[in-house]
Amino acid sequence: MRQPGPDHPITIVPxxxxxxxxxxxxxxxxxxxxxxxxxxxxxxVFYVPRADARWEHFAPSARRSHCPYKGxxxxxxxxxxxxERPDAVWSYEAPYPAVAAIAGHLAFYxxxxxxxxxx
Length: 119
Fold this sequence. Notes:
CATH class: Mainly Beta
CATH architecture: Beta Complex
Helix content: under 10%
Low-confidence stretches: none
Structural class: mainly beta
Distance between the termini: 36 Å
Number of strands: 10
């Protein structure tokens, strides 16, 4: 486990508005409680509470990955009547203490969904 620091900063802040996440027009999640995680030089990532997802479109995947700063991630495949996107969503179910705020949240690969709507 590595700790965020000056050489690899990680910040997590509340997103100050509503997000809608869709795939091929089908609503997957809508929330006013998203978090924004910014890590080192990577683009910011929205993390959406699991409670705000429409789970009928999510199926657990066999894919797993490990981040030395955040922990072990599990993945989900998205399915709508119009599209399927394997491993399009990830979640840290038991993240490391430095990023504990993202527990119970989902993140979406932006190139595998419609553009995220922000209001």
